[in-house]
Amino acid sequence: MIRTTLTATTLALGSLAVPAMASDNSGVCSQNPVVMVVDGVTNDRQQMTIYGQALKESGLHQHAGSYYLNDPRPLRILEGNRDQNHVTLLINFPSECAAIDFWNSPIYRQKIKPLRKDAGDYTIELYRLL
After folding, report:
1. What is each CA distance from 99 to 23, 50, 53, 63, 66, in whole angstroms?
2. Tally of domains within the chain
3. 119 within domain boundaries
4. CA torsion sign, 40 to 58 to 67 to 22?
5. Domain membership of residue 69 as a residue range
């Protein structure tokens, strides 16, 4: 099962206001940079490898100006426990609009995303950079 939620949030620091979460269908996006966070458990590594290769070959990240910020497996767990197949991937996008365009692109929706069907249980969110 794959749970997908696109949200835009910020953390409150001092007197900074906390914007409300934006729905992915609001029709409005920002030109400010965002990070896409993919978090969850991979159930079928082989299928996710196929998905990852297809995504790489599609050129969608290059077109969007996005890039990976981390290895999705933790270097070290400092507190708590995680399933050994739990991953957290951070992807930098030059803007919220670029991330939404990537997510809604016909190539991604029709050809790439179906490759990961039933391969994991992920939550996907967008975060504003401070």
Report:
1. 13, 22, 19, 11, 8
2. 1
3. yes
4. negative
5. 32-128
**Nearest residue to 93 (alpha-carbon basis) of 124, 122, 62:** 62
pLDDT tens by residue, 20-66: 445 555 679 999 999 999 999 999 999 999 999 999 999 999 999 99
Quick check: is 43 in a domain? yes
Rg for the chain, CA atoms, rounded: 15
Q: How far is CA 33 from the centre of its chain?
A: 13
For residue 112, what is the domain's CATH number? Answer: 3.30.70.100
Pairing of strands 86-93, 67-68: antiparallel
Q: Tokens representing 68? A: 């990976």
Distance CA 6, CA 25 (A): 9
Q: Tell me the two tokens of residue 21.
A: 């979460």
Q: 60 in a domain, yes or no?
A: yes
The tokens describing 101, both together, are 């365009």
Q: Which tens digits make up the pLDDT trace of 92-122?
A: 999 999 999 999 999 999 999 999 999 999 9
Cα separations in angstroms, 52 against 9, 33, 61, 88, 130: 27, 23, 11, 15, 29
